[in-house]
Design brief:
Keywords: ATP-binding, Cobalamin biosynthesis, Nucleotide-binding, Transferase. It is an enzyme of class 2 (transferase). This protein is mainly alpha-helical and 186 residues long. It has one domain: Hypothetical Protein Ta1238, Chain: A. The protein is 59% helix and 6% strand. The protein has a two-stranded antiparallel ribbon with strand order 1-2. A two-stranded antiparallel sheet has the order 3-4. Strand 1 and strand 2 form a beta hairpin. Helix 3 packs parallel to helix 5 and helix 4 runs antiparallel to helix 5.
């Protein structure tokens, strides 16, 4: 099987049920989800399986869910069956609570960074926010977009923040507070 088809050479790409320009909002949104998925894979590669078995398990499940969500955004078939459901959102919320309870209390904004895996998770968090914004834009233009993807991305960015903090905490690396931040978390 060849990896190249030459069908995209004219600036169009195939999606599920049609073809669109490569810069279409739909392609931007699911393309950003693909970028996010790659950074999550990078974070997994930076985590030691002994200290982070639970986080690796979470992130691996998230990678599959991102494929589902990206596929849902790429689907323009008249009869759609979305793969991403509300269940992973509930699981993310549960995991956010567990991870937030493990990390030290947070009073101020923090600077992204710390251990390499934590820094990568912060990058993934910002990409998740961008994917969410692009999904909002897509939803405004095209009404028949799965609302679950947008909600999932919103919750995922919170999870990635909590996970980055736990990675630093388990490694004994203190988060660096933004020095001009007021106490915003009470």
């Amino acid at each position: 099987m060849k990896l190249y088809t030459k069908q995209g050479d004219t600036g169009k790409t195939s999606i599920i049920g049609g073809r669109v320009d490569k810069d279409h909002l739909r392609v931007e949104a699911y393309g950003t989800i693909d970028e996010l998925n790659s950074f999550i894979g990078k974070a997994i590669s930076e985590l030691g399986p002994d200290k982070f078995k639970d986080v690796i398990k979470d992130l691996t499940a998230i990678q599959h869910e991102l494929f589902d969500g990206g596929g849902d955004l790429a689907n323009v078939m008249k009869e759609r069956h979305y793969k991403l459901t509300e269940q992973p959102i509930t699981i993310l919320e549960e995991r956010i609570d567990v991870l937030s309870d493990e990390a030290p209390p947070l009073k101020r904004f923090i600077l992204p960074g710390g251990a390499p895996a934590a820094a990568t998770l912060h990058i993934a968090r910002t990409i998740a926010r961008r994917a969410e914004r692009q999904t909002v834009s897509l939803t405004k233009e095209i009404k028949d977009v799965s609302p679950v993807v947008q909600k999932y991305l919103n919750r995922l960015s919170d999870y990635l923040f909590a996970a980055a903090r736990v990675v630093n905490h388990r490694l004994g690396i203190q988060d660096v507070e933004y020095i001009r931040s007021a106490d915003v978390f009470k």
